[in-house]
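So, can you check these tokens?
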Amino acid sequence: MAQRYVRVQSHLGQLHYGLLHPDRRVQVLDAPPWLQGQPTEAELLPTQYTILAPCAPSKVVAVGKNYADHAAEMGTPPPPEPLIFLKPSTTVTSVGATIYYPSQSQQVDYEGELALIIGERCAQVPLEEAQSKIWGYTIANDVTARDLQKHDGQWTRAKGFDSFCPLGPWIVREISSAARLQTFLNNNPDPVQSASIETMIFNPGQLVTYISHIMTLLPGDVILTGTPAGVGPLSLGDQVRVEIEGIGALENLVAARAEGA
């Protein structure tokens, strides 16, 4: 099994990066792993921590319509170059956390995606170096208020609500280029999304190069690589699970936010 890097909060309130063992013990690192964090002697038992999103990015750079079949279902041709947008860092939430359905929207959609974790500060990265800037991979759900996206004509509000970027549950260093991404609703065995990540229009290295020629990427930043066909609406009470071969599963529940919360 590939090493799984996690970010957790101890029951004493301390934040840690660590290595997750098969028995769910966490070996604490002395720094984020992409900043050369090394294992310490400290360990946390499964009852002593809560798992968080596996990184705390300064920004989440997302890519739209990066699968031709998804562009088609949106009624547009594939873009000639990556179509990028930003999600606030405050959208990031963890496996098992609630996706809050905003009162402003009548249609909130799931979008299962592969996420890249940037390992070092990088700008103007040539394509031949781009892969080396990707420290690891995790799973994301680019939750979208579809009606607001259509209404606004730009995507900031539709993509930017708190909890609209579940991320996790952990990071792995490598993934097969042919890994399959699937999304499931309410434990139905038939996926609503299913595609190989190798069918992306622009591959991870191309995305790093393109984005780094626009903005500097910092260690721990996240790139969402786009979603395949099959996006659709979520309802209150839904359980949505995104799986990627070689990583695991990211599952979240959809609920209304309590008034004033």
Remarks:
- The chain has two domains: 4-51, 60-256.
- The mean pLDDT is 96.
- The domain at 4-51 is CATH 2.30.30 (SH3 type barrels.).
- The longest strand covers residues 248-256.
